[in-house]
Design goal:
- The chain is mainly α and 271 residues long.
- The protein is 74% helix and 0% strand.
- The protein contains eleven helices and no strands.
- It is globular.
């Protein structure tokens, strides 16, 4: 626990993110605009980062769950595709929580695995912003329906499938760190080796670990949906008592803006 301070810093920032998200809860459109701005910065930064790696010929690609989450959240927020918001919220929240848990359990490896202090700081900032946007999407912007749970399940399955293609070198054949991909370790059940030691891993332990994590992931999705609905029940009840209408976010994003422009053009043409 040489780098205990690192775990403390991440925990403090995570708590601050949660408090700020809670403060923004009553401001639905403000929450969306804040999330959209942060998502735009994240997707732009990650695009430049991985683009730079390609330019210099360094075999570094977006293969981790959190890497892919940056692009899912960015694309979802900027396009305004409503059906994808719960999946993007799950990606951001899960990516941030996973980083937080890893930091608390093994702060030493989280620091020593970085090549410089710069990457340590940037890593913390990126994951905490990812976590914050995930919180805003999960609880502040809209009510998520239980019937939409298939979207994050199918999306997560697609991410796992993509990671397996990378692992077996069908995608990014020059990527050499396939054994370090966290989601592969989860699928194989070897992630528990960080706690019990890799020498103690057995096929039975790996199978139980993989199944337990899959069940936990679905349970977390259901918990998020339950909390989201409870919060919006309260918000809608208070709004009704105050005689105000909650603002909508259906008109925010590139897709709604394009649709609005087309509708206005058609109306003008008819006129």
């Amino acid at each position: 626990m040489q780098y205990w301070w690192f775990s403390a810093i991440v925990g403090i920032i995570a708590l601050g993110s949660g408090a700020l998200a809670a403060w923004l809860h009553r401001h639905i459109r403000a929450s969306y605009i804040v999330a959209m701005c942060i998502a735009a910065v994240l997707i732009a930064y990650k695009t430049c980062e991985f683009g730079y790696y390609r330019i210099i010929g360094h075999p570094e690609y977006p293969v981790e769950f959190s890497h892919i989450s940056y692009f899912i959240i960015g694309a979802t927020m900027l396009t305004g595709v409503k059906k994808m918001r719960f999946f993007a919220a799950f990606c951001g929240s899960a990516g941030g929580i996973g980083y937080l848990i890893a930091t608390m359990l093994s702060p030493d490896s989280m620091v020593t695995g970085m090549s410089s202090t710069y990457y340590v700081v940037v890593g913390v900032i990126q994951h905490e912003l990812l976590f914050f946007v995930g919180l805003l999407l999960m609880f502040n912007i809209q009510r998520h329906g239980y019937r939409d749970i298939w979207v994050p399940i199918a999306g997560t399955a697609a991410i796992i499938g993509f990671s397996l293609l990378v692992y077996y070198h069908y995608v990014y054949p020059d990527y050499i760190n396939v054994d370090k991909i966290v989601i592969i370790k989860i699928v194989k059940g070897t992630i528990i080796g960080y706690l019990i030691g890799e020498e103690n891993l057995t096929p039975a332990i790996q199978i139980v670990t993989a199944i337990a994590i899959a069940i936990l992931a679905i349970a977390v999705m259901l918990l998020f949906l339950w909390l989201n609905n409870k919060m919006f029940d309260k918000t809608e009840r208070e709004a009704a008592q105050a005689g105000i209408q909650l603002p909508r976010t259906d008109d925010l994003g590139i897709a709604p803006w394009i649709k609005k422009a087309i509708d206005e053009y058609r109306e003008k043409k008819k006129g």
